[in-house]
Amino acid sequence: MSEATVSLFDTETLKNPYPAYKSLRDSQPVYFEAAMNIHVVTRYDLVREAIKDTATFSSRYDKFLGASQEMMFAQASEEVQQQLIELNEQMIEVPPTMLTLDEPDHTKYRSLVNQLFVAARIKAAQPAVQAVIDNCISNLAQGLDDSAQPEGVVEFVGTFADPVPLRIIGDRLGIPEEDRAFFDHAATQAASALRLTPLSGEALVERARTALQLQQLLVRLVEERRSEPQDDMITILANSKLEGDDRELTHGECISVLNQFLVAGHETTSSTFGWGMLLLCQHPQLQEQLRGNEKLIKTFCEEVLRLESPVQGLPRLVTRDTDLGGYPLRAGDMVMLRYGAANRDERQFAEPDSIDVNRAKAGSQLAFGAGVHFCIGAPLARQELNLGFAALLAAGRDYRLAAEQLPQSEASFILRNLPRLDISFTPA
After folding, report:
1. Per the confidence metrics, is the pTM higher than 0.90?
2. Which of 200, 256, 302, 366 fits as disulfide partner to 97, beta carbons 3.0 to 4.6 Å?
C-alpha cells in the first residue's frame, strides 16, 4: 500500500486539484488516501477498467457516504447531536436504489424512469427547455440594472446557472408551482451533503431539517399521484411495480430515486454552466468562434465537462482480492474513481489542460461516468447545455469577468462547482 505525500482532502488542493492529479497520475496512479481511508484512482485507463468491471468494483458504496456523515456527527456538540437524532427519528429509512446498487437490482429501478430520458422525449421537450433558458436570459439582462449590484454587473450562477436546471428537473419530477421555492432550496441542500465538507452545527441541523421537510413533501406528492396521476416522474414511481415484485414502491424507495434525480438533475448542469461561462470570459476569442455554430458549441460543452468534471469522483467497493494497474487491493477496500483526474490524462487527451473546440472524440470524457451506471440524465443535461450556451452567445456580446479576483471552487471532495460568478456583458 502506497500513501501519497499530498492529500486530495487538503482544502487548497480541493479548490485546485489538477496539479496534484497530474503528479499522482505520473507517480502513483492508485494510492491510499489516509484522510478518507480510501484508495484513489487517477489515470483514465484504470478508472475506465474499474467502471467496466462491476463484479469486482461494486457500486454498493452507501456505507462510505454514511461513514462520512457519522464523522461530521461525531465532531458536533452534544446539543447538535441531540437535535440531529430527533430529526433522524422522524425520517423514513431510504434504501439503496440505482446509484448504489449493482445488477440486476440497479436496472429494476432505472428501467422505471428510463422512459423519461429517451431521445424522442428529450426532443419533444426542447421547446419547454428553450422557454426556461430564454426566461433566465431575460433575468440576466434585467440583472445588469439591478440596484443590488454595481452598475453593469450580474451574478451568473444565481441568475442563470442554478435556475435553469432546477426549473427543468422540477418540471420532470412534477413539483407543484407552490412548492418550487422550497424544492429549489432543498435540492441545493441535498447537493451540499455530497460535498463532504465540514459544516457548523447550525448548518448540520438546518440541512437535516430541510431533508425531513423534503421527505414529507415527496411522500405527499407520491400519495397525490396515486389518486390523480400526471405526466411526471413522481407519477411513474408512485404507480409502478418493480420487475418481478407484485408491490408498489415503498415511500423510502420513491424518495431514494427522487433524491438522486433532484441532485444529479441540477448540480452537474449548473456547475457546467458556471465553469463554461468562466471559460468564455477567460477566452473571449471563443465567443465569436462559437456563436451560431451548433457543432462547435456541442464540442465546447463536452470540453467544459472534461476540464471541470462536476462530479470529480465516486467510490466503489472492492468485492474480492485483485489488483488495479499492479496495485494490490483486498476485498472490502474502498476505491475512489477520480473522473476529474482521468479527464485531464495526457495519455488519453492531447494538451489536456487546454480547451479545444475541435477536439476529436471529445465525448469520450467520463464526467457522466460509463457502463451500466452511465448518467441516465446525460441527454437532458447535454440538451440544456447546448441550448443554453447557444442562447447566451446569441443574446450577449463581450462576456467578461466583473471582478479582478478569479472565482474559486468550493472545497469539495466529490462535487465541483462555482458558488458565485460576477460577470458583465453587452446585450445583443
Report:
1. yes
2. 256
